[in-house]
Amino acid sequence: MSEELKQHALRIVEILQEQGNPYQRVEITQDEIKIVSTDVSIPNDKAAESAHPTAQEAIFAGLSFPGPAVSLDDYMKHFDEYKRRCSN
Fold first, then answer.
1. What share of the chain has pLDDT > 70, as a percent?
2. Any idea which of 7-11, 28-32, 47-51, 77-81 has the lowest mean pLDDT?
3. What pTM was estimated for this model as a whole?
4. What spatial distance separates the first Cα and last Cα of the chain, rounded to whole Å?
5. Of residues 67, 68, 64, the one with CA closest to residue 41
6. CB of 58 within 8 A of CB of 50?
7. Long-range pairs, 26-35, Cβ under 8 A, ≥24
8. Which alpha helices (H) appear in the chain, and where do they start and end?
């Protein structure tokens, strides 16, 4: 990698750290610049293999959600929708 390209890349990293979020990355080609976000990330480990966690386990292990958390009232308003979307 040329020194000039490395310096530009480091500046992009700084901008992401200042203005982005940990789930964003920048993809640059000769034709376009993309800012790409990850909505859900599930690690490939034993915690992710458990299809039905017990009450002691975290039900969202390995997941992250974009944006700020909703209030408990808003969460409860949509709990029935959550249950309908569950696969079983």
1. 78
2. 47-51
3. 0.41
4. 50
5. 64
6. no
7. none
8. 3-19, 46-49, 72-77, 79-85
